[in-house]
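Researcher: Structure prediction, please.
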Amino acid sequence: MATQVLDEVSAFLAREHGLLIGGEEVAPRSGTRFDVVNPATGEAIATAPSAGPDDVDDAVRAAREALPAWRSLAPAARAELLWNLGTRLAELADELAQLETLDNGKPTGEALAVDVPLCSALFRYYAGWATKIEGAVATPSYGNFHVYTRREPVGVVGAIIPWNFPLLMCGYKLGPSLAAGCTVVLKPAEQTPLGALRLAELISEVGFPPGVVNIVTGFGETAGAPLAAHPGVDKVTFTGEHTTGQKIVEASKGNLKRISLELGGKSPNIVFADADLDAALAGAHGAVFFNQGQCCIAGARIYAHERIRDEFVERLAERARGIRLGNGLDPTTDMGPLVSEQQLERVAGYIASGRDEGARVVYGGERVGGEGLDGGYFVRPTVLTDVDPKMRVMREEIFGPVAMVASFADEDEVIAAANDTPFGLAAGIWTRDVKRAHRVAAALEAGTVWVNTYGMFDAAIPYGGFKLSGYGKELGREALDLYLQTKTVWVDLA
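Model: Predicted structure follows.
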């Protein structure tokens, strides 16, 4: 039995929301709106405003006008606003978690355990940094000069975020950019605008000055692309597919705006024969099936040592059989639907491709209906084996609950296989051998390597990828640096 939707969530869905531009909630200039669909039912539950190029232009202008006052505001005042926003998110955790479920499909328990608390933590973490941005004094090698540096905000930031962690991604982008003194135009994914629209209300409620944060919902072609190319934007930060990231780089050349990209992955998860198999299975299960497999870090490319491969495959499939599919509002649900019909078709296409190329489906592989699931975008968690490194399922990001299990004989072989990918976002290692753990971690071409765990994140610890997985870090001090630039001042004392 699904949990009853909270009254405040129902009221929010019933309202007709506008774009947040210059501190005001405004209708899109075109007057057009689009449906927001609950992926568990396939039914429209709300509408959102569809921003176009003119709306983006208005939002960028508002951000530009707000920039001088925001960047010169006392850092402690910026810190207080960020802290208060993080606190408000924590206070509204139940409401926000339900919105994430209705928007994205994920179980509400996952949103309560991960999405909402980490988003809250991000605003509080970067609130602490707002008062700790410092320059330095330099000693020149000649003359009588006083030389110092200032750390200043980059300017207006265009932030474009994906649909897999809608509210959390807002925190990833807004936390460091606002702490640095930048103003922002945020464009959420069209599949999942609800969290950003609710955040817009909270931003106004806690007292951010008008224009500091602007939120434009809409589609990539009509809102995202104009934002990425806008000459009034000084930096674009993007999380999403690498092909879109490449388009954003191309669009940035007009004013050479700064770019940071957190893109896709095809992450290897390596299980050595000496690993704690129970722990490795639990870790692999979470690495593949968490958030319906819709994670850029999904450890779906599993390499199990040949001595344990068969047992590992059998036990992983058994765990997959035990996953209860259902509406994310139901507290007994383990896995919700995929985010959209389009994503369901994409995942089904990859599973069919694996079959056609010779992979063996150990469990799953089909759309699921009936028993209250009709109309939703549900796919059974899937385990494939007998996979070849040249198969599409081993080369391309699926973004669904599909595990591929290959075998290996020795350390050098599995390192080469793990690195045989154009991506380099994350990797996992399972072993009791400490020397091997450090040796393999150093050899893997990935921005984050987890040893005897998987998918750990912290607001204070940097995260980001190598190769086609992008450049620039999220989280930690390194993310803050992406929104700052250094000015050097020379004063002649002679």
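Model: The mean pLDDT is 97.
Researcher: Thanks, that helps.
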